[in-house]
Amino acid sequence: MSNIDVDALAAMSILDGKYKDSFYLWLTEQVLTVDETQRKHRRFPDKPFLEDVAHALTTESRLAFPKSRRMLMTWILVSYCCWSARYVPGHFIAWQSETFTKAAFALGPQRMSFIENNLKTRGLRKRYDKLEAKGGYERVKYKHKWVESDGRVADGESTVVATAQGATVLNAYTPSIIVLDESELQPYARETLAHALPLLEEGVQMIICSSSGGPSGILAEMARSINFFRFT
Fold it and tell me: What angle (nearest 5°) sits at the alpha carbon of residue 135, between those of residues 131 and 137?
């Protein structure tokens, strides 16, 4: 291996270490989104609220985000799941949508896998295993290797799975992060949240995100409880 190759690998390792420590920097400096009106790839827009959202995602265990289309919250949460799986060994992340097909879409080549495959710096793109399904991917898995303090090389993996709505769906998993995407459109979201409460007591991160107007109303109730009445 030439000195140039060694120097390039060292530079990539340093850059990767920086992004491991900061979801916000990784999101704003590396992640591309798709402008679906112009069919172009664009860097993630650094919106005024983005740094606060990124900080909350990496420090808080119970989060709820009322959203509008302009906020790009689904892109942010998909990016967070990707970042968590690629940098933190042992994560098991459940992305739950109204239907399995919608959840698989979030993991698939137009969202989460798109993000990994199109990171701005090519040398940072990581390999992952995927299980294809209707609409996208049922599962995305990253493999990890690291050196323990005693010099032993250890390995592990982190996985993101797509699930349909339903309180008992999570019984099949022991998740570390649960995302309820478009919770207001999930008739069983209230039961899912009640079912997940013991997991939350054990430290599992729960993220609820939705636009308004759906039948479940759990996020609208949370918004009203803090006198936020623009979300109904």
Answer: 20
**DSSP states of 120-172 as a string?**
SSGGGPPP-EEEEETTEEEEEEEEEEEE-TTS-EEEEEEEEEEEES-TTGGGG
Q: For residue 132, give the amino acid letter.
A: E
Q: What stretches of the chain adopt beta strand conformation (E)?
A: 32-35, 40-43, 62-66, 92-97, 129-133, 136-147, 153-164, 177-181, 205-210
pLDDT tens readout for residues 67-91: 876 778 999 999 999 999 999 999 9
Report the candidate in 65, 82, 102, 69 with the shortest Cα–Cα distance to residue 31: 82
Q: What does pTM read for this prediction?
A: 0.90
pLDDT recorded at residue 172: 72
Alpha-carbon dihedral angle through residues 37, 41, 43, 47, given to the nearest 10 degrees: 10
* pLDDT of 132: 93
- The CATH code of the domain at 3-225 is 3.40.50.300
The rounded radius of gyration (Å) of the Cα atoms in the chain is 18
Distance between CA atoms of residues 193 and 174, nearest Å = 15
